[in-house]
Amino acid sequence: MRWVLRGVGVLGLLVVAWCCVTAWPAIIHGHPLYGVLLVLTVALSVFALGKSFRPRNGMGRWRQAFGVVGVVVFVAWIALMAWLRPFPAVEPALAAMESGPTVTVVESPTQIVMAPPSGESTTGVVFQPGAKVEARAYAAVLRPLAEAGYTVVIPKQPLGIAFLATNAFESARDANPQITDWFVGGHSLGGTVAAMDAEAHSADAKSPVKGLILYASYPASDMSSTLSAKVLSVSGTKDGLATPADIEASRANLPKDAIFTPIDGAVHAFFGDYGPQPGDGTPTVSHDSARQLIQRNTLIFMSGVQLNADG
């Protein structure tokens, strides 16, 4: 048991070191929870190492069983920490995080807000990142929305899981009472949560959700008859995760007037800037070209929804 404890202690320290070396910017710019759990992992690893060097006179059967269970649980914990390692943002997303004459960018431990410097925006967008993707990775693709006059809120999800940030839309709405109309959107798993928000709040009397923007995503349930918000689904024809077949199947779960826009040659990771993603397809178009098409179609959709609402 001593060598087992030493082994899991060393394993825990190695996994934390690997996470920090390969994803440090994403850890310090992400939601604080993951960083806290990494510190806890270090503490538990050091405890296991220290315990392995203590002299023992013998262990009872129940104590041995408890020790084995503890080791198994800790190994599973270490595996979870490795799996939760975030995908760090890369350029041009990092450059897009800088405030300028047309956009003010404010980053906090739990969200990123991009807005027109005038502060007179009356339409907002809450965009949920994909699973384990750093929130900053969407700055470049979403910055043109802020330049067009929209307030954009990108939540920093606890552990990078959208289902742990289901209160993000309501929090953003409460924090921005000047905004009268909202869009919600998301990438991959983030889009699934955004669809839930759209269904729950599209009929609200005050500051309703007018539009749902799905990037390589689809709803988890049938909302074809319950969702009153307009829908834009943008997908990649070479996506290996949210495949074209998955997107096509999602038509049945969305209103009949939902707009489906495939980006020829684009893959799953092209909806943000965070590098390649395991399981994804092989692109046949440049990332920059795909990003521009995603931005253009999103702006056309949003302006159309606003025009119809105002008309």
CATH topology type of the largest domain: Rossmann fold
Oligomer: single chain
Largest sheet: 8 strands, mixed
Tally the beta strands.
Answer: 8
Percent helix among the residues? 40-55%
Query: Average pLDDT, to the nearest integer?
Result: 95
By CATH reckoning, the class of the largest domain would read Alpha Beta
From the spread of the alpha carbons, the general shape counts as elongated
Tally of separate helices: 8
How is the largest sheet built, in terms of strand order? 1-2-4-3-5-6-7-8
Which ranges are low-confidence, i.e. pLDDT below 50, for 5 or more consecutive residues?
none
N-to-C order of helices and strands: HHHEEEHEHEHEEHEH
Overall number of domains: 2
* First-last Cα distance: 73 Å
CATH architecture of the largest domain: 3-Layer(aba) Sandwich
Q: Superfamily at the CATH H level of the largest domain?
A: Alpha/Beta hydrolase fold, catalytic domain
